[in-house]
Amino acid sequence: MATALPHRFPSMALAMLFSFLVVLLLLEHAAGETRHYKFNIDYHNVTRLCHTRTVLTVNRKFPGPRLVAREGDRVIVKVVNHIANNVTLHWHGIRQLTTGWSDGPSYITQCPIQTNQSYIYNFTITGQRGTLWWHAHISWLRVSIYGPMIILPKHNESYPFEKPHKEVIIMLGEWFNSDPEAIISQALQTGGGPNVSDAYTINGLPGPLYNCSSKDTYKLKVTPGKTYLLRLINAALNDELFFSIANHTVTVVEGDAIYTKPFETDKLLISPGQTTNVLLKTKPEFPNASFLMAARPYFTGQGTFDNSTTVGILEYEHPTIHKSSKNLTLMQPTLPSINATGFVANFTGKFRSLADAKFPANVPKMVDRKFFFTVGLGTSPCPKNTTCQGPNNSSKFAASVNNVSFSFPSVAMLQAYYFGQSNGVYTTDFPTQPLIPFNYTGTGPNNTNVINGTRAVVLQFNTSVELVLQDTSILGAESHPLHLHGYNFFVVGQGFGNFDPNKDPAKFNLLDPMERNTASVPSGGWIAIRFFADNPGVWFMHCHLDVHTSWGLRMAWIVLDGPGPNQKLQLPPSDLPKC
């Protein structure tokens, strides 16, 4: 005879089922969710400075849409190209661990997406949270194809600083009245410097200091006595930018999606590619004034540049009366001088990693391989029977790393590497130090011509690397914001003049150096960086001043697979574009 089940069984079963569902939910939260985006590359008419131009955009937005995810999430972005130009997108600062196929630089990790074609970028955000951004990565298309990427901490995780009342994205950019593609195309043909931008922008708006632009002004409305998190991104094409808000001090808490030891400042420098998160504490009472926020260039080179200022307005909302801001005093910020190299060195030196138990700074203490790379400008000879508009009107402007000006191959390097078909695509003999040493920041060599080639450095998996990047004064000392794809690195040292391998390493900071994906080589100076080569693939490294990248200041690292299953480059996706 069957035994009757106890009366309490249904409630036990329900409790077990509920517990099981909770565990599943927790596991899903731990693993992260999958976020889907569709990015249509499309034409869009935009008017700035009384000039209407057809601009290349994502989803007809300028700047482009924000991409929001959490640490641990998988992100899937379907990109459809509706324009005549070839295009790729890069997720700037995302490590792309074993997913180099989704990194985006054209002819490095993929062939570009051609007209009416699509490609799905598919990656997981591992061990990263903070402000990053995405942008086109072919020619100068990123001038208008760009947008913010906000990576929130995992569920139940908090910021290591005060919870803000509100979060605000501030993207700094550049506006050209004419087609930037025509500008760089003509410059590469003539060998001269390209025409500079007509304005800088804050969230796509130039502001009232430019002709015809008072309506196109970004306004940030704030409440007294609150803390705001400003996510600052420099998406400008060719300029490092100072930024300041009149009569306000901010606290820097993050750079390039890495938390920093907090420090206060009333002026910032942000290089193209970099992001900086700051806390803005508003004044406790309504101040009877509005405050300009301004950005203008830091420039130390010898060429022309866009010497103008973009401004937005910080407006306080009155708690009781709706006051018109037109009657309020407008306070103006003081920005450093255009070539304030001393301020820049002092400011960048303030960045320090948290280096605590939760957010350690895993700096390589021992180094397996040391590299010394010069970065700077040079020349290429004019084609026969032609005149050029470069130096002395007898050559073309060029740029190089260790005097090698990088030429893009006609197929993607990552594909050639993966399928063992590198022959005729690239070589692995990139010089680990200058072929001919000289006084890098003093009188340069008589011959300033560069060598052209598609050369890479090969690293064994998990090699600890030290790289010294040395500016040269050939055609003028200049600051170079260098970006390394697929990695963060630690800036262990910086200085002016020529790097001294006997004295300078003793001053390296191996305790809490700043971890970044983009760092500027000082004008007439050097930086030393360290990283573990723990991400297999082909990784682009280049100056984030696009004019210098176009001239050849770029190279590639090839990191071999490691022994473990999660240390190998994944299979190429089936929809990988063809060249």
Overview in brief:
By secondary structure, the protein is mostly beta strands. Helices cover 9% and strands 37% of the residues. The longest helix is centred in the first third of the chain and has 23 residues, at 9-31.
Features:
six-stranded mixed beta sheet, secreted, 9% helix, single chain, 5 helices, 579 residues, copper, mainly beta, Cu-oxidase_fam, glycoprotein, Laccase
Describe the structure.
There is one protein chain. By secondary structure, the protein is mainly beta. It has helices at 9-31, 180-190, 341-348, 413-418, 546-551, and strands at 34-48, 51-58, 67-70, 74-81, 89-92, 118-124, 130-136, 146-152, 166-175, 199-202, 219-222, 227-234, 240-245, 250-255, 258-265, 268-270, 275-281, 289-298, 310-316, 329-331, 369-381, 395-401, 404-406, 451-453, 456-459, 464-471, 480-484, 489-496, 514-516, 518-521, 525-532, 537-543, 554-559. It has a 6-stranded mixed beta sheet with strand order 10-9-12-17-14-15, with no helix packed on it. Strands 11, 13, 16, 18, 19 and 20 form a 6-stranded mixed beta sheet that branches. The relative contact order is 0.13. InterPro entries: Cu-oxidase-like_N, Cu-oxidase_2nd, Cu-oxidase_C, Cu-oxidase_fam, Cu_oxidase_CS, Cu_oxidase_Cu_BS, Cupredoxin, CuRO_1_LCC.
Secondary structure layout plus pairing:
Elements (H helix, E strand, L loop, with lengths): L8 H23 L2 E15 L2 E8 L8 E4 L3 E8 L7 E4 L25 E7 L5 E7 L9 E7 L13 E10 L4 H11 L8 E4 L16 E4 L4 E8 L5 E6 L4 E6 L2 E8 L2 E3 L4 E7 L7 E10 L11 E7 L12 E3 L9 H8 L20 E13 L13 E7 L2 E3 L6 H6 L32 E3 L2 E4 L4 E8 L8 E5 L4 E8 L17 E3 L1 E4 L3 E8 L4 E7 L2 H6 L2 E6 L20
Parallel strand pairs: 1-4, 3-8, 9-12, 11-19, 18-20, 21-26, 23-24, 25-33
Antiparallel strand pairs: 1-2, 4-6, 5-7, 7-8, 9-10, 12-17, 13-16, 13-18, 14-15, 14-17, 18-19, 21-22, 26-31, 27-30, 27-32, 28-29, 28-31, 32-33
